[in-house]
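Recap from last week: sequence in, structure out.
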Amino acid sequence: MIFRLSHPKTLSNRSSRDAHISSTSGRAFQDTLIGSLLSKSCLPSIPGKPFLFFNKPKLMSERDIEITATTMWQLTILDMITKEIKSIFCHPAICERLASMLNYFLQHLVGPKRRNLKVRDLNEYLFDPPKLVAKVTDIYLNFSEYNQFCAAVSNDGMSYNEQLFPQAVEVLQRIKYPSERIDEFLQLGEHIKKIAAEQKEEDAAYDDAPDEYLDPITSILMSDPVMLPSSRTILDRTTIARHLLSDQTDPFNRNPLRMQDVIPQNELKQTIEQWKASRRE
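Predicted structure tokens:
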């Protein structure tokens, strides 16, 4: 039910036709509580220029500042949810989105781009980067024992790098974040780095995989291939699940598509597994 709980901003009186358009255009997920929490749009922005605060905070309008004020609230709610409920977020498509969102936040808050946050009075913009770093860290730690999440963090090629966690620790120490939690965060960073190294080694072992074993969108070896019913394209289940979170159509011909309509390719899956086993021998 948590996926069907609409975000307050979307509780206007929509007609059934509007709801149908929303669903097929991919807004269905974004209009849920979890969808809105995992959206980077909780950061201040203007149309066509996302994440304005991270780029030019002095150009923020009053509306942008109002949006900024909701950032901590949304992360606090997400922290509360993930302390108690983790299984939902460990679904591959959701897990990847959560990991990329957290990495994105952290990279801008503690990485080289943090210099963009220097303004005369951050309170004027209702924005508190140190508190955001602490809250993002809390959410990372909620998933510290889940390898699916750790792998998703390391696989994020946009924002993750091995320096991300040490850079965050420097900030956490300055803001007097609990030392035992910092130790846990450092251990998590080392664990994620180890997973990243193992994944890199595995990728090297499979770098000559036949094209028919590779996902046509990600070019990664498929682990659970499925066929899309209208375009007859075969790709990995995780890839299409992630796509359908924001756009409920077949990405190859734009026909409407639901996750329950995809066709498992069990024979191909077994063939890929056998090929992988032969490479490990």
